[in-house]
Batch of 2 targets.
Target 1
Amino acid sequence: MDTAIRVLVVDDSNFYAQLVADTLATDYDMETLTGNDAREGLDLLETSEVDCVVTDYQMPELDGIEFLEAARERGFEQPFILLTGTGSETVASEAVAAGVTHYFQKDEGDQQFEKLANQIDNAVEQRRTERKYELLVDNSPDLIAQVNADGEFVMTNEAMADSFDATPGALTGTSLFDLMPEEIAAERLEVGREVIETGETRRFEDGYDGQYFHNVFVPVDLPGERETFQVIARDITDRKETEIELKETVEKLEESNAQLEQFAYVASHDLQEPLRMVSSYMQLLERQYADELDDDAQEFIEYAVDGADRMKQMINDLLQYSRVDTRGGDFEETDFEAVFEQARDNLQVAIAESDAEITRDSLPTVVCDESQMVMLLQNFVSNAIKYCDEGSPRVHVSAERDGDEYVFGVSDNGIGIPEDQLDEVFRIFGRLHGKDEYSGTGIGLAMCQKIVDRHEGDVWVESEVGEGSTFYFSLPAGGVADD
Ligand code: ADP
């Protein structure tokens, strides 16, 4: 120990007090103070730093044990060594019960001072070690306590005391039931008793008054302490609040998404009927009154029928779009080369008419919804064929492994997309051209986006006007948990 031990020696015999103090100072390098009674001793404890008290037992007014009790009451926690000349058994047991660190007889012969110095050394060393651990516990931001089987605090750290606006000393002896709602106190005590009984640590979360805790209850495997348990509680209010907020946001989002899908479905489904009426009555008009209508009227009817047809197509596409999530198929091991063949077969007519050449790399097997993959690829390839002005379309489907996903690409030699409209094309009904230039409803790519979203992948496009475009989509190589 690098700092000298500071000892207060109290004895009503001034001679003896001085003898002890001088010996400890001269022979054992200790710093010493002396007092002649307990009152003086208490005053010195107030004003000086003391590591250990050595006190006579028999003194006028307060005896050595009463001196100890008064000092403890004032918060003095260092070791107390009791000196006595009588060697009475009753004093010894009273002294131990009162918390005296050592009990020492004055008349132990020549070696008495060496023995006393050893006792002081050991007691101070032990107290310093204890204090080190106390500090560790006190400096912890976690709420730490030892609680007995009746639910009373035996000991707490600063953080635990702070959480109840108290000091560790004031909290000792207080019951859990005085500090928290009865239900929580009862639950905690039940867990604590289980821990005492089984000797096994328990971890759980609870909360009250807007605060949440992660608790660890640990058995205390020490003689005399086995009827108690340790509580280490961590305040997780911030984390919990974020979790709750996140959960609420996800729930709201899911609800609004479901409402939107429901809306798209209902709107498209219910619009079909009145639309069917419009086009069939138009056709009836055309058939039954053809002779009475002039050319203008015939032409107007044609426009109306055409409009109704287009609207029907849009409604059908919207209906299909709204069903991507709700009517999706199972995710299974899917050979993308088979997906490619199916998409190409479905596009036979367009391929033949445009004299398109469709090629591919070797394609992997991925866990996904096969029929949606056919839809996806078919959409990209048919766009590649459709948005090609010069020469015959050349379309290539590629696939590359990138970390834990596959990135597929569908590239063409078509008209390309201006840089500032690359996002626009994925919007519902988002079209860069009029219906007279290129047919279509503008839902295809929005649906591609939704299909890829369902597979937890991404979709994007790179393009140069006049040169061509490549639509990319990624899919997790390990597959996605099927919902
Ligand atoms: P649609 O083809 O029915 O209009 P899409 O959602 O499939 O709807 O495409 C949206 C728009 O994106 C198209 O109207 C077109 O302007 C543009 N587009 C899609 N694919 C290509 C492509 N391969 N090359 C150039 N433009 C494209």
Target 2
Amino acid sequence: MEIYLDANATTPVLPQAREAALAAMAEDFGNPSSIHSTGLKARALMDGVRARARRVLGAGSGRLLFVSGATEGIQTAVLSSLSALRDRPGRPELLYGATEHKAVPEAIRHWNALLGLNLPVLAIPVGRDGRHDLAWLREHAPRAGLVCTMAANNETGVVSDLDGIAAALAGSPALWLVDGVQALGKLPLRLDERRIDYAPFSGHKLYAPKGVGLLYVRDGAPFTPLLAGGGQEGALRAGTENMSGIAALGAVLAALEDGGIFRDAATLGAFRDRLADALQQAFPGLVFNAPPDLCLPTTLNFAVPGVSAKLLLDLFDAAELRVSGGSACSAAKAAPSYVLEAMGLPAWQSASAVRLSFGPVADAAFIDEACARIRVCGESLRDSCLSPGAAGQALPADGLTRFVVDGACCYLLADAASRRAVVVDPLPELTGRLAQWLRCQGYALAAVLDTHSHGDHASSAPELWAAAGQHAGDVDSLGWPHDAEALALGALTLTRLPVPGHTQDSTAYLLHDAASLRQVFVGDTVMPGALGRSDFAQSAPQQYAASLARLAQAAGPHTLLLPGHDYDDRFATTLAVECDAQPLLADVLAGRLDAAGFAAAKARLEQGLALTEYQTVACGARVDGGCLLASSELAVDALRGLLRRHPALLLVDVREPYEQRLGQAPELGSAVRREAVALSGLPDALARWLALPADTPIVFFCRSGNRSAQAAQALRRLGRAQAWSLAGGLALWPRALPAQADAALAI
Ligand code: PLP
């Protein structure tokens, strides 16, 4: 059963709220504006919910409007204030907290421009603890027209000092908006005891459905309707009311007033502390991004040095623990959190933040289970040698692993028998991780090789040797041991082939096993869809054609080439595939173009080469425009159909080992062959799959369908049509409902 720890994004609907919503749809379905009995019943229900909300929020004589959610409430409040400011002399400032939900600054910018006011908009700075800079606010208060400060932050849970803000605003003409979304049900708000003018709320953050919310407007505060129409809500917000949502919100507020299932602050704080302890034990070195004693008792925001948010999210998700990276809105983009940046946290902390949040009806059994799973996640990470404190108990690793940083590829070739490893094209960003892995596995470095002197970064080989606590010995500038013909690594052998062109010193490394040539590390000489550029000062454009011919002779058309850059997840290529995609390469290898003609044609391609999507120097000129392959997505029913036709299909789990250890896999019957190959291990597995009979379907799956789609597309590009990806991944895989469906509500 999933443990949902993302309550600040949204919550499930309480059973009593569901029942109330259903009743409002099936029985008391009237329109509250109708004057017949059915309508009157609906109005009575609505008035009852409003009265209850008034008590819960301490709304006193203020107005409470039903709206669609906080975003609408914020728009209405901003429109109302800016409309009032139109007539105010001077140029009042519009102030908002730097950590405010984006709905606030975006609404201010939108209405400020649309109303043609163009008033100055300023962010109120916050301190390292996430709280507003009250001295700054005091200084700006006399000139302020609107001040927006949330009651509690959605990412960090930091609770604002509303009394301090009220004091800083004493005597200010500013209107004051307090976003109460995350505070509802967790903090007493006592709206009418403060001079708050507007306060928006969303039902779905507190066990009501999406699409219903509240806006508090202080008695006497300026008001301009956002929606005009049939005069509902006293003509302040037109549109027939969302009665099922209002009924559900009423049921939640009733439960909150009764107190029964909602825990008090001390109980919630104790739950939070237990989760914090479990996290610290599971992930040594973990840091909390905001001081827990200043935060909502239901939110923890943390980062683990050396472990990305993406890795942690995948790991937690595999353990059926739903958490979020920063805020839900920015999670998809994996951008650093602007909230943590505003707090002045170091870049690594704001880029690798994870948020864990639970709702105020959580119980002890739920917290126990969450803590147990957090511990299992920590063990899984330790066993994969990814956790900073890990040692000893790791599984031995064998074969080739690929790492990618902003499109640049680094390879780790490990031999379990000799416990030695070779790194090809080390990247500075990976030094700590690779050294950690080597130490944890107890491997010695046999060599750290560069395929060329890189244009976009200096080789980090010396740092890697130092971080691993080992010595490179007598090696040349690319890390190859002086006088060595070949480099042996267990049953594998590496030899080298000079391929000047991209740079003078470009070198390909050929990896042989006892029987044959397995793969070639080609650096940037040939990349998927591109040839390495040769317009750098250290390039040798006239020698490029001969190098390609030498590579073709050594590797042949079908050996897998492993590139130094892979900007769009193609993993590996072959000369045959590239000749189809790149006419220039086909021409030079077929002898239709001489060295000078090739160099000239290539120079034309490289004119005005733009930066990559990562804002790094492009290492090659794209020539195939990114090929579009037929979709490899397979929905669950289609997979079942395929399985009936091919009972012995190959099912490949492409999640990382630390996820595979924890997660479930689709149940497809015993005839299905299964493999577990993380994307990082794809370069090693591709050759094996390409050798399978052409009609054997290979179906990849992962958590969400993204990584499996990459694997299927990579294999298709190499000519294998029967490569598929399970659409939507395990997230959409049908699963048995928990015995007690409401168990999920223990959050
Ligand atoms: N304000 C805060 C603090 C929030 O957390 C959210 C939602 O994440 C919103 C406003 C916007 O709420 P809604 O999307 O329900 O309109």
